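Notes from the pairing session

We agreed to fold both candidates in a single pass and log them together. This is the raw record for the first candidate, unedited. Please don't reformat it; downstream parsing expects exactly this layout.

Candidate A
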Amino acid sequence: MAKAKSMYFCQNCGFESSKWMGQCPGCREWNTFAEEPVAVQRGGAVSVKRERARPVRLTEIEPGKTARISTGIGELDRVLGGGIVQGSLVLVGGDPGIGKSTLLLQTCRNLAAAGRKILYISGEESLQQIRLRAERMGSFADSLHLLCETNLEDIREVITRLQPEMVVIDSIQTMYSEGLSAAPGSVSQVRETTGALLQIAKGTDISIFIVGHVTKEGVVAGPRVLEHMVDTVLYFEGERNAAYRVLRSVKNRFGSTNEIGVFEMRGDGLAEVKNPSEYMLSGKPQDASGSVVTCSMEGTRPILVEVQALVCRTSLAFPRRTATGADLNRINLLLAVLEKRAGLQLSACDAFVNLAGGIRMNEPAVDLGIVAAVMSSYRDCAVDEKTIFFGEVGLSGEVRAVSMAEQRVREARKLGFGRAVLPEVCRRTAERVEGIRIIGVSNVREVMGLISAGNPRRPAL
């Protein structure tokens, strides 16, 4: 009888070791190794003779257009790059209760209504629970098949027999293979089941969506190699108590990785937000200091968002710095630039910066909006609500160019904005848009000059 063998796996990145180690050499995390049994290959297996692969010249390959299947959800199609690619393996991650299963069930409903055969496999919910959730969305076609199973071998048999066009696995952490004695959700089980599903997707040309749980750090639970095996990785973002959800693509072999889709959670499921800018600016206060509208590019889509800043005198030895929706280190950098280059005494003030609506943006183009909001709050002077700011701010206080300035200004004009403050080097490009006044600035001192230092609460522009 073969002797049982075990290995040590890093629960964070999947690094393998024959002995336990305190620190993982792969991800440099401490105390992440766990012992798991591994399958031992038996000797004497009969080898199967197969045809060897032959290299092909690049010029011999005939170009062909990748066939895509529309999900019936425009925001999801945008993030996927135009639709579902046949034979692709897509990983959907997000916090519990964020709406992953709801979105995939809605996708199955639309595809089934189009006459496509769909298989939904759940390892966490019973058939009755799925039926209760589906009743809130409406009627479903007969081509949608449900299966509650966690055994990978049984799932492979059902897929081979049914031959669906799309399969949903909810979730990958509940699946297990009988060839491994490790518990479901372990590193070896997650990697083995994902590899088997990848072979099924590529071998049978079936599109497979797998749901993955996330850790407290917000990354997909399991080995890091899981994200490298799949074709597309989608993340659901947003607060559970907020009304909207953001679907972001962090990896896509068939499209852009900068696109996002915005959804609103309702009683009957997730609804698309056709105009995210208008949705994000709803409820913006009027004639309030520290409130400025900026623009960020998410892929090919410009999104306008309100930046709120609150600057007040501190009674502490060390002033507080808080950022919501933006990088705190970037906020500290911009505050230092304003104190050094614009002469604002921010070292004696608490500063709080918030991107309204709970959305998170890291593009450097929002720097100018943050700077203008901090100046407005510091001087207690309101900025005209029909003015938009965008541009990157450097360490010398200069306002640097950003990409797609014309598209940003066009989106602002569409929503009724009358003025746009942007980098001087982008002024000529932005002036092609008619019906909006373009103001070019070269440094933060010029921005400070636009914000009035006279009467408090008096509009500056």
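Candidate B (folded immediately after A)
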Amino acid sequence: MARQKTIYSCQQCGFQSPKWLGRCPDCQQWNTLVEEHPVAAVSHPRALPEPGKPLKLSEVTGRAEDRLSCGLDELNRALGGGVVPGSLILVGGDPGIGKSTLLLQACAHLATQGTALYVTAEESARQIKLRADRLDIASDNLYLLAETSLEQIRQRIKELDPDFLVIDSIQTIFTSTLDSAPGSVSQVRECTGQLMLQAKGDGLPTFLVGHVTKDGAIAGPRVLEHMVDTVLYFEGDPGHPFRILRAVKNRYGSTNEIGVFEMREKGLREVSNPSELFLAERPEQSAGSAVVPTLEGSRPILVELQALVSGSSFGTPQRTAIGLDHKRVALLVAILEKKVELSLAGQDIFLNAAGGVRLDEPAVDLAAIAALASSHLNRVINPRLVLFGEVGLTGEVRAISQPELRIREAARLGFTQCVLPRGNLKNLAVPDSIQLIGVKHASEALENIFV
């Protein structure tokens, strides 16, 4: 009898090797290669029509996709306006962040527009029922299926013919055509491929819940994110009730759109005005506090930056940043020392984005410098003032994108002054209630911010 051939697949990146290796040569991770049998040939049903002749782009006719509302405006925003029929949506996030709660709430509303099937592969149907009772969800068109076999799931889909499908989670689904364990690279890839063909062939909107690794990336092969139409990351700080749903890939809309939720006893509540929520507990007469209008996709959000600068008790001063890139913070501290001539070498520095949000864009540089200088000098920044702008290595303040959206959001919330790059002052149509102060250097900005 011929010996059965095996391969070793990396569970992080999908790299395959004929022999076991302690370290994956592709992603450089240790002890991730697992023995698997070669993937058997699987006959997929054709989900697309027979190929025709090549067409000119001008000859192709198209129309806007009809979208279905999920009942949650913040989820609709992240999806680009709603659910597109036949789309495959991957939702990832840390354990306990609220992925199942979000999709159960969405299913409750989608069940009013058709039949929804919620496949739970990690919990029993009774556990889902208990969560639904806590969320006050009751619907005769919402069906629960506790199953992990892909063949059984597809059979039930054929019998029920649902209008919406949720798979929770894709890492626990397996197909009997493969010998590898559920959650392995080959199982995740094969199950996702068959669900994709089913979604495209039947026009069935499908949500997939994905586990994440300790690095925050969705577990499984990288091809998983390439196969789906939309990738949503559910983010949140365990110490805060706020949750941010961020779109990092969307074939039917813009990327980097976010939806903001607040976790409560009755489930997730939408936050239609996150700026007011993030600034609700802001201390207005305390040094070290600055407000920056940041942009998430096409949505302006006002966030408070808090800084604390104090004398160091150790030989090496601490540099701690929460919600910002610590390397960027170290760079801004060096600019303050060299170009603004503030002595920060022997100071412990702590910088925090209040509310548990994460700020990645360079437009927060000017506000971070203002908060650090305010704490170091113990001077209060004007509470009705906002700042934004990128700061270069020579201390210059560079223009940033879409200043009008940021200024209008600040004016709507009652702010009366805005310090911004001088290069952004041209052709701005903003309310008269807010005064614009253009600056070219970080030292010039600090002269205009204190009470």
